[in-house]
Amino acid sequence: MSVKAQNKDAATNPRGIPFAPFVDKVEDYVSSRAEVDGTMKSFQEMISKYQFMEVNTQRRAAGLKEKIPDIRKTLDMVQFLKSRKPGSDPIETTFELNDTLYAKAEIPPTDEVYLWLGANVMLSYPVAEAETLLESKLSTAQQSLENCEEDLDFLREQITTLEVATARVYNWEVTMKRKEKAEHGEEGPDGDNKRISPNG
Questions:
Q1: Per-residue burial over 172-190, b = 16 or more CB atoms within 10 Å of its CB, e = otherwise
Q2: Does residue 27 have a pLDDT over 50?
Q3: CB 126 within 8 Å of CB 112
Q4: With a threshold of 0.70, does the pTM exceed it?
Q5: Which residues contact 178 (CB under 8 A, 6 or more apart)?
Q6: Which of 125, 136, 161, 185 could form a disulfide with 193 if both were Cys (CB 3.0 to 4.6 A apart)?
Q7: CB 155: neighbour CB atoms within 10 A?
Q8: What is the tens place of the pLDDT at every residue in 134-144?
Q9: Is residue 1's pLDDT more than 80?
């Protein structure tokens, strides 16, 4: 059975990342030493692909870890504005203009907020609608982060599986070399095979 044939029918995790082939019997993957180099190369290519996916998933997880606190903070503010009753006194607060500059403002009770949607786009929403939107975004981001963490664990497992498979194929080749050497023997000075007596 070739590595490519095994991989083609391999199962995947929920995000479609395939399981690495588990090498229980090396003979299922290589039938002779001539196939070892191709099999080892195939394993190394798969390891590289898994490592590439691991790096991308780590970056995505890092972005979500930065994004989730911002969404939660915005949601908390919207929920606070929603809780204020009409006719309440304005509250004084500071808001961020940039990383080092803040300004003071008075906020009266309101039923409308403006949310940044990205790409320099800001839209007005009724408070209740903004709350629903932010709760949905927070839930989606949290689920995405959970998926990333699961995928990272999965990818590490597949890399380890392939590293073990590579070691098994390598050890099999070493064993076969020794076996062939023992079967054919080594030519002595007189052309006779060297033999080792039981007594050394």
A1: bbeeeeeeeeeeeeeeeee
A2: yes
A3: yes
A4: yes
A5: none
A6: 185
A7: 23
A8: 999 999 999 99
A9: no
Look at 24-33, 77-86, 123-132 and tell me which has the smallest mean pLDDT: 24-33
- Secondary structure in 3-state letters for the chain: CCHHHHHHCCCECCCCCECCCCCCCHHHCCCCHHHHHHHHHHHHHHHHHHHHHHHHHHHHHHHHHHHHHHHHHHHHHHHHHHHCCCCCCCEEEEEECCCCCEEEEEECCCCEEEEEEECCEEEEEEHHHHHHHHHHHHHHHHHHHHHHHHHHHHHHHHHHHHHHHHHHHHHHHHHHHHHHHHHHCCECCCCCECCCCCCC
What are the structure tokens assigned to 155, written together?
């990818």
Q: Pseudo-torsion of CA 136, 142, 145, 150, nearest 10°?
A: -110
